[in-house]
Every structure is written in structure tokens, then in C-alpha cells.
């Protein structure tokens, strides 16, 4: 029998395998007994447990799945933790229809692109070869540094391809493939794919550029100094005058920050920004500690048996800086610019705009006609398509982007685009510069 409505705080208590509730479109469902039968695997349900997963559910499921939920209904959701969106607009419906028809006509599975497996294999192989090469050429510094640089690039590409694809279930329909490809990131890069899923799949994608919800733009409270000022409603401090110089340099610490922050987020804060982290199961606890221990062992300690400690540390730091800068600049160019919108909910916690339209408004595409940028950014130059259709393999983004652009034009919706990566990156640097200036109504601290 249905119970009285749950508040979001009450729903949050049902966040384990033994008590697993989720909310979809204002209704609460008990999926505890469905956990091991979920076609998408138990991990995905455990991550969503105790949360309103409406946006994620709609993104990764067919409409026919709605009917299946009915038998698990237990109550209504009385309050909302995060902003809510209206029903899909005519634009959103038409866009999905056109993309669905595109794949129906070609007879291809949008989650299966064999060439992606080849790319994964090449990236991992070059990663291993460059890792070994930097120590093989330890007596010839130019070649050693080149190998370390390539290693850093490959580490970033592991994040942009196997990690990113599996976190969106966009490569095959097999949860085991998603799990084990995700572990490549854990053990090769030393960062948790599970924490990334909370930040990226549960936070950034559903609530792109929405303050205090999207973990990617989370900053300190308005009156507290943050490293950077990227939102106009942040308090201004004099050091921001030169943030366009020092912030890009600080991006080089992203990888180290992420590795250390993983443990703090999971076991101390128990949330990533505003996104709550559910208790890890035993296997997940083992993976997060084992992968970090292995990373320290193979990247820093083991090499000291064959080369000097100084050489080992130089190789590690160079590859890590390259990887961090590569990833950070790729991410920032797409969302942290003055070209895109920074939406805020109304006083009732509602975003009065279609979700897909907001994804387009908060995203900047660039160089979509370039195979180079499509490959070496993991198709993030097609970021708009990725945000509306993250469950489709990045291999097909170049085919879908023209459909997206045409549909935007047909409905009079602005599609943000920069012809080159340098222009997109320039827009990010310009944004840092502009928000670094003292607002006319605020005095320097």
C-alpha cells in the first residue's frame, strides 16, 4: 500500500543494497528486490539509490521502461533536493525523434562502434610502451621526456575514452564491460571511476552549470575566497585580477588533487559538492585503495629500482602535469566561458526551461569538422550532442552534430560554436579575465 509522501531527506536514507529507493518524476520506487535483475547492472542502481534520478533515468532508458516502474511504486516525493525541469519541449521531442530515425535507417546500434575498442587498445598499448620507454631511455633525457609526455597524453585519453564512455554506458550493453573498462582508469591513472560517476553522471550532466548543484563549477561560498571566480555572483577579491594567468597553471595539479580528493570525498565528506556519495560495498572499498596503492607503486616506487629517485619523480610529475592540463583545458573550454549560460532556478527550485534546450545553452562546441580534435578530445568538441545524448557512442557524434545544428536552426534555438579549439580555449581565458575584474558595485577586499 502506498505510504504518505517522502521528503528528499527521508528518501536519502534508502541508499544501500538492503534498502534501495529512487524517485522518478515525483514518485518513489522501492527497487531493493530489483537490484540484481537490473539490466544495466547493480552498480548503477547503487549509485542512484536514495536520490531523485529523473533526469538520469530519462537519459538512459527508453520510454517503455516507465511502465515497468509502476509495480515498484511506494509513495510520492513531497520535496525536491535539486532543481526540477518541465516536461520535454517540442524541440526536445523532435530532436530525439530525428536521432532515433538516423540510427534506425542505418541499422546500427548507437552503443556499438567496433573502432572504439581498437582505439582503447591502441591508447592502452601506447601508454604501456611510453611508460617503459621513459625508463629505457633514462640516460637520454630528450627521449625520456618525450616518452613521459606521451604517457601523460595517453593517461588523459584513457579518461576521455574508456572512462568517459563507460560512465555513460555508451559502449556495448554489457555492465561487465563498463565495470572493467572503468577500472582501467583506477589502476592506470590512480583515480576512482566510481567517484567520477557521482560527479559526472549524477551531477554535472543532469545539472550543467547550475550553481550549487553541478560539481564541476562548485566554488566556495559567496563570501569565502575561492581559487577562481567563474560565476558573477561569487564575491570578488583583488587576486582575481590576474586569475587568467595563474588559474590555467593551477590546472596542472588536477590529477594529484583528484587522487587525494577521492578518499576525502568518499570517507569524510561523503558527497561531491552537493551530490551525495552512497556507502561503498566491500569490493568498491578494495578497488579504491588497491588502485591508489598500485598507482604509487608502479608510477613512483618501482621505477626507483632501475633509475634514480630524481628521474622517477621527474617522469611522474611531467606525465601527470601533461595529463592534468590536457583534461582540464578540454573540459573548461566547453562550459566555463562567457559564451554559454549560467542558469539559476526560480524561488520554487524550478528551471523553467526544457532540459535539452538548457544543455545546448550551457555548452560550447568547437572544430566539429576536425578529425584531429574529435579524436584527441574524445569527441568533446561535439560536447552539445554528448550532453543531450551521452548514452550514444562518441564515435557517432560527427554524424549527429549536423542533425543537432539543423534542429536548433529549425526551432530558433541558439547553437554555440567556435570554429577552432584555440577560439574556444580563448573564450575560457577571456571569461577568467572578465570575471577577474572588480565589479562596479563591489570594493576590493
**β content, as a range?**
5-15%
Label the overall shape.
Answer: globular
Provide mean pLDDT, rounded.
Answer: 95
Radius of gyration: 22 Å
Low-confidence stretches: none
- Major sheet description: 4 strands, mixed
Spatial strand arrangement across the major sheet: 1-4-3-2
Please state the structural category: mainly alpha
How much helical structure, as a percent, in the residues? 40-55%
β-strand number: 8
The secondary-structure element order is EHEEHHHEHHHHHHHEEHHHEHHHEH
Structure description:
Helices cover 53% and strands 6% of the residues. With 445 residues, the protein is mainly alpha-helical.
Task: List the main descriptive attributes of the protein structure presented here.
445 residues; mainly alpha; 4-stranded mixed β-sheet; 18 helices; 53% helix
What's the short version?
With 445 residues, this protein is mostly helical.
Task: Tell me the layout of helices and strands.
Blueprint: E1 3-6, H1 8-11, E2 21-24, E3 27-30, H2 42-48, H3 54-60, H4 65-69, E4 73-77, H5 90-106, H6 114-136, H7 141-167, H8 175-189, H9 193-204, H10 243-250, H11 254-269, E5 271-272, E6 275-276, H12 282-301, H13 309-335, H14 355-361, E7 365-366, H15 371-376, H16 383-388, H17 397-411, E8 417-418, H18 421-436
Parallel strand pairs: 1-4, 7-8
Antiparallel strand pairs: 2-3, 3-4, 5-6
Helix pairs in contact: 5-17, 6-7, 7-8, 7-13, 8-12, 10-18, 13-18
